[in-house]
């Protein structure tokens, strides 16, 4: 029931999302876990959601069939977007845009095997006006049982 | 005006907040920047805000006199708490508690010196029911001009 | 001033919204009350609002002239949508869609005639990904004085 | 993957929460499902959460051990509270109180057995000023995979 | 149905709330309207709501009996508090305090007499840290049919 | 550190936004302050943000170069929009439209010169259904250090 020190799924996901290609190759996650990374830039929050869902299904992190795992992933994405947008989950509607790297990690972060699989969605990048450089960093993390 | 690659103030803050004591000692930030780290655990969101403000003032990250810098820090804390709480900035009122490490970093993350100082507040830890182990990780980042 | 046991306007509205055509025909509401039911499915929250408003005016639940009753209905719809969306009143923008049955009921649910008319908007149906079957049920109820 | 017509878990939960003792006894749910009902009245949202969690564990709807099922229930409760409070999940802090009946139902509402168990939390009652009769009905429904 | 130029109820309410005693005496509102002003300072949002409700009832702006007018006033207060708090309707819970002047005005701001009475709640003052001077101005306006 | 009585930047901004052309000409603000006023009507929140930003840059209230001042203005606009929309920063998506006058004022409202410049964004006008006359007044104020 207790989080295992070396299986911090959120920390692993954040490190994956924050690392450049070189750094990523030096990161390790527990062998039985699954993960994928990707990039998405948009003023349209729908495209951010779609990009992450598509990648997670294509890379086999969640099942493409059925609703259960899609539902778990969706709410992890929404939670991560809350951190990125801090208040209103809106981008273009309030004239801002994001450039994000994302990571999705699936595994059991608890010492007890009964806890089963959990999913972590981490987002890292920039948010700001739709003008190059008028932006600052932003981060979001969502974790759900799956 | 563009974010400098090696001066990602949010990434630095998150790494500080996510690292244990040993790891922290191996992290580097730009020499002219200021930073502090701390811990706070509570069901009371007010205590989280107070702990970060107190540390930032005691460690000289922001001025203790005047309102301007306090105002900048306060909104960075609120943004970081949005990521941690994802939706409603409430802890005990919705029966959950947090155990957080925080980092506050101050410096100019842009290539242009005219952008002046910015402040980043990073939070990393766990959120969950007030029962040991019934919790998962959570993260938040707030960035503001100061 | 007290809610009358057999004039629970919200319960009546929810039962209307949750019932299929056969079941609806067996439901009763106080004779002096007005009500209408309808259906709307969309990724566009604006269309949900419009469908309910149009039906309520067409069926004579509220006056088509003037602002007062439109204002009362509008906020009852918004409250019902809060229950359906739980957090952010957004559909397509966060890549989800709804298929809803709605009921609008107008009458006085209190024992005291001085309380005048109130309006209840009930929504029942499904919310989920824009993929058939990838959805679960959702409900919302808004009540306002009119 | 499609919701089964006679296994609408949210509708079942709402009907349980809206029914008085006599009506409840005439309701049926699928035999392999589990459910419980209860009552809670408070200005303190924490007490509402606690009452539902306690009942669900005591009645064996979810496991008392481990975090996974508690996490699923918690978010279903939060979603239901969103519908009840419509905007800010706050009661006493904005000077209002609730008197609620709740139902928790666990089962698979989908035709495909692979979808596994889901949990529905339904709330029905009144919300209003802390003065007898100064209140109207309110409803909330949260559904989560478990 | 159209707002009358000289009966801007919101503008009147804001001017009342923003004026000192001397300025208030020079303001005029339509003769058949009712209004009251008052002050409240607190870290407790409940006290702000209570102070406005109490004043509005004591000064005869709304009826003390029945729920209908209390309900209309309550939501106008909540809307005004949204403007004051900008995001989360929380004060002490996020370590901030307010010092507010409030005005409640009741009348018909429309050219058409059929629109009946409306109520405006205006709040003006300061919000900030619980330290003298660490604060800036804040404003909120809520308008509802009554 | 204390707000100066005759330099209430928010009050000045609100009065500018609420005044017609004749009234504006009789208002005074501290000589070293900068201000601009404008109008915007839209169902699209993005256009409201853009209109204010464009005016503030064109009139020299904030620098057109760099991100720092744009960031300060942006959050003041968002805060003002929170007051206008009261809950969800959405217009057309929830089928409502605004007709607003805005004022942006820059200056130091504190007695201590160390507090530097602050920016106030005030919005005043109407919000309602996209039907002439089906609207009521609305107000919003955002204040930020710059």
Automatic annotation (TrEMBL), chains A, B, C, D, E, F:
Query: Pfam families from the xrefs?
Result: HutP
Q: Which UniProt keywords apply?
A: Activator, Histidine metabolism, RNA-binding, Transcription, Transcription regulation
- Record flagged with keyword Nuclease: no
What the entry lists under InterPro entries is as follows: Regulatory_HutP, Regulatory_HutP_bacillales, Regulatory_HutP_sf
What this protein is reported to do is described as: Antiterminator that binds to cis-acting regulatory sequences on the mRNA in the presence of histidine, thereby suppressing transcription termination and activating the hut operon for histidine utilization.
Complex and partners:
Homohexamer.
HAMAP family reported for this sequence: HutP (MF_00779)
**Family recorded in the similarity comment:** Belongs to the HutP family.
Name listed for the protein in its UniProt record: Hut operon positive regulatory protein
**What organism, scientifically named, is this protein from?**
Sutcliffiella rhizosphaerae
Question: What taxonomic lineage is listed for the species of origin?
Answer: Bacteria, Bacillati, Bacillota, Bacilli, Bacillales
The coding gene here is hutP
